[in-house]
């Protein structure tokens, strides 16, 4: 069963390959006969994470089926070290499904952080925003259908879709190795990431913990929870 | 001066590194002392292209500044072997500039090709389509401004932008090596590519011809103009 | 059980993810509801291969454990779109195992092809070559051991190993997606590739046929067995 | 003029594109009109480095011509995010040039670090090591020539070269963007890297400082000189 994310989105694990054991197996080939029996795999995984020996983590792979708003997809796709197949709006008609934030997620522009949001809007302001978003998305979608109508204007799908708003949902298969997944999570489960992509990243964090518990623990210890002190600070 | 593309877009060469000579120089290191003086560089470049020895073409690099509609950007960004910095709609307000096709470019859904367009629409139908596109884009943009208004709702930019339509323009710096540029062109200057990305690719084809004439000629001879015959056909 | 390759090498499938069905599944997401029931998957896979729609093939992944001579590893590693963990000669001592060609594989420099081999050497010349190769590899390895000897010189492994010859065997885990595997095979199962890497590629071709038979068939039809005719030839 | 590295190696800057200004230019496109005039570029570059906003650094590119021992090349080539053209030992005959460490660089296996070297060997032990390395390299090379001799055995170059030792020199063109160059330097100018690759990295560090002084300063402040404290340590 897929995990629900946002109002109409989801995240579903389609397949995966390898686990903590596969990371250890690959790391051990580097050490061959010379290896002292590392009494626990956890220790080796922590060592790899601490020293940023990232290639053994590339030995695991995971594939998701994701449904997500277009403006989130535009951020997500910037991660190039992944494999993607997206629903084609040239080939098919997009569904009338668009993201509307929960009222508690509609916030004002942050004043301290030019690239983020600040205080939550008061209920009636949030209501007004939702009305605008819904009305415009509905109107644009209705006109999309009007343009597509084979009995009417019959415009090409690849053209008509440009009338849609950025909160429409799309879908894709997204496959990535464990190292690059963690790189994605370090950037997108972070507080600087936009809330709407962060909720996907947080769900993936939970999946990570179930899938590769030792790696997830080391990741939290040495990456997510770590802090870097600059030369001058030290 | 930038090259104008579509109604408000452009393509500008910011910088480049290397030329036909750099391809030859790199290919020659592979052959070292053993090389027969290849009387013309053109011959070597044709040889590399014919045999798909692509790494010497990676020795040249070019950087563009591009202004393009969002739905075109979504196709373009799928080419992962490039470097990108895009205008941030979390950080800044997008301009009220959106793509409206020339009437002669508004076409019906193709019947033979599910992923393309067919006959051009009659003038009054095209007019109707343009009215819809313009009206919706304007309305959505006006509401974007309403939501942003710091004296009014004051919504965060990262949220308000989801109300924009996919024909809005964005900008980016895009840097790529010559091999991957040709790969991009082979896919996007092709008749299967959507018209709106193809016009950018065609302009880049002209730039290619001016920049690396020997490579461009070989590319047209052995890639763009070539045809592959399958085992059974042969 | 690993497949034996060359005199001491092997190729072993450690794990894989996906199959022909996973390629089809990913391709179908692009077509969504719009898809006519493609009566056979084979047709869709052939279509993707013919039109070089390569991203659906990236949805499958395979991991090998390989033992191979150093000079083969140097060619192999040039394929960057793969994940690798190699035995470390800084960390561990390399085994005394080196590649000696079968007499029938010892050939003269080709006269027509500067980058290949021509006629097989007569038996006694081959014998002489083998004597040289064996003697030098043994001597270099013996001196490697001498330098390493902790009771004697006790040289660091990372230094001593520079005395070894390029026919020594190394090992690695090598993981790759199906698209990039086929790209590797197109270049390395080809007659222009050196025999010693080609035998690995040929074994992988057999694995491909067992793993993804529809994809393997399309690959042979539209890539390996195809021929490209240039613009001028057409 | 190339920089000399090790006994016969070198590092030469062939070409480059962009500088600190190009990093800033690309970062600013992300901020568009919204940017407060950042009074100094140095501040913006430090900000990008501190927050690991790495894509603006991908906007600069540099190309080197490098001569390096084979065992160093084997480590170097593992950095996949670069473009390479190497001298071909299938096509050409390798020169009789091999690396011999300076006596002061010949060290014992480290006892604390399985993957490194410890104390320098006493002079006469170092002498003995050098004698072995030189003798074996010379012998192997002489036999390489014997096998190649077109009047004699006439063995194919691609076969004969397997008799060479790993301290032989090779050459390549190596091109990389500034972000990935710094990633290379972070790993290879580090004390865990083998001395023989570190000396190349150190020379590149100097080049970095001359080429992009602001970036180099920020890199030293926030990457090379920084230390990470784990969640538990904090
Ligand atoms: C006419 C047309 C129709 C299309 N329709 C669809 C569609 O319906 N749905 C859809 O999702 N896409 C569609 N695409 C996009 C297409 O699937 C590719 O994403 C896009 O063309 C980029 O091609 P590429 O992967 O070869 O280029 P790049 O991403 O630049 O890659 C070039 C090469 O580098 C290697 N590579 C780069 N990154 C990786 C990586 N992370 N892992 C492994 N190898 C890598 C591969 O060998 C690849 O071939 C379409 C494209 C075209 C031209
Ligand atoms: C909070 C936040 C704000 C952002 N703001 C902006 C913005 O305003 N404008 C903007 O344009 N982007 C912005 N981004 C996106 C950002 O610039 C990256 O594109 C994105 O985070 C992907 O990161 P990446 O490049 O490390 O990942 P990947 O693309 O997955 O790459 C991982 C690593 O692989 C290597 N790599 C992969 N592909 C290539 C290649 N083709 N060439 C060279 N090396 C390669 C690099 O070493 C890279 O570090 C933002 C991201 C975040 C998290
Ligand atoms: C001190 C030291 C000891 C080492 N010991 C060993 C050893 O014992 N055994 C061993 O095998 N190696 C060893 N290595 C090599 C190491 O594992 C890396 O291969 C090497 O450092 C290159 O690092 P990278 O992968 O980060 O760089 P790049 O290959 O340049 O990659 C940069 C980033 O791009 C992305 N990327 C690039 N290509 C791909 C791809 N195909 N798929 C997915 N993501 C990609 C990743 O995000 C990656 O982090 C050692 C390295 C060092 C510095
Ligand atoms: C018969 C033969 C002879 C050869 N002779 C020589 C020689 O004399 N000298 C020599 O140096 N090499 C030689 N090579 C190696 C060759 O140049 C390639 O390095 C090797 O074949 C790997 O091919 P690739 O780059 O397509 O594969 P990959 O590295 O797997 O790349 C696949 C695709 O991904 C993309 N890609 C991956 N990484 C990057 C990156 N960092 N930047 C940009 N795009 C990237 C590119 O689009 C590329 O086409 C030879 C190869 C063969 C088969």
Can you walk me through this structure?
The structure is a homotetramer of 234-residue chains. Chain A is built from eight helices and eight strands. The first copy, chain A, has helices spanning 20-31, 41-50, 70-76, 123-148, 157-160, 178-188, 195-211, 213-224, and strands at residues 3-5, 9-17, 61-69, 83-86, 107-109, 117-120, 169-177, 227-229. Chain A has a five-stranded antiparallel β-sheet. The first copy, chain A, starts with a strand and ends in a 5-residue tail after the last strand. At the A-B interface, helix 3, strand 5, helix 4 and helix 5 of A face helix 3, strand 5, helix 4 and helix 5 of B. One flavin-adenine dinucleotide sits between chains A (78-81, 180, 183, 187, 192-193) and B (80-86, 88, 91).
Walk me through the topology.
4 copies of one chain form a homotetramer.
Chain A lengths: L2 E3 L3 E9 L2 H12 L9 H10 L10 E9 H7 L6 E4 L20 E3 L7 E4 L2 H26 L8 H4 L8 E9 H11 L6 H17 L1 H12 L2 E3 L5
Antiparallel strand pairs in A: 1-2, 2-3, 3-7, 4-7, 5-6
Helix pairs in contact in A: 1-2, 2-8, 7-8
Bound molecules: flavin-adenine dinucleotide (4 copies).
What would you report as the Rg of chain A, rounded to the nearest angstrom?
22 Å
Most extensive chain-chain interface: A-B, 55 and 55 residues
- Give me the side-by-side strand order of the main sheet of chain A: 1-2-3-7-4
Oligomer: homotetramer
Number of H- or I-type helical stretches of chain A: 8
Terminal residue distance of chain A? 48 Å
How many β-strands of chain A, per DSSP? 8
């Amino acid at each position: 069963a897929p995990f629900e994310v946002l109002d109409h989105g989801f995240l579903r694990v389609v397949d995966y390959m390898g686990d903590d054991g596969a990371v250890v197996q690959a790391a051990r080939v580097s050490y061959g006969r010379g290896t002292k029996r590392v009494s626990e795999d956890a220790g080796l995984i922590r060592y790899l994470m601490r020293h940023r020996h990232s290639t053994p983590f590339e030995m695991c792979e995971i594939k998701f089926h994701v449904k997500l708003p277009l403006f989130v997809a535009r951020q997500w796709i910037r991660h190039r070290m992944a494999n993607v197949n997206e629903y084609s709006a040239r080939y098919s008609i997009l569904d009338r499904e668009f993201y509307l934030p929960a009222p508690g997620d509609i916030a004002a522009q942050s004043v301290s952080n030019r690239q983020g949001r600040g205080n939550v809007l008061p209920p009636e302001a949030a209501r007004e925003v939702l009305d605008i978003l819904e009305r415009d998305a509905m109107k644009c979608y209705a006109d999309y259908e009007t343009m597509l109508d084979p009995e009417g204007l019959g415009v090409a799908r690849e053209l008509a879709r440009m009338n849609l708003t950025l909160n429409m949902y799309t879908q894709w298969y997204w496959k990535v190795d464990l190292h690059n997944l963690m790189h994605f999570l370090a950037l997108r489960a972070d507080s600087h990431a936009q809330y709407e992509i962060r909720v996907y990243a947080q769900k993936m964090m939970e999946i990570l913990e179930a899938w590769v518990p030792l790696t997830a623990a080391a990741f939290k210890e040495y990456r997510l929870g770590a802090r870097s002190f600059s030369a001058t600070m030290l």
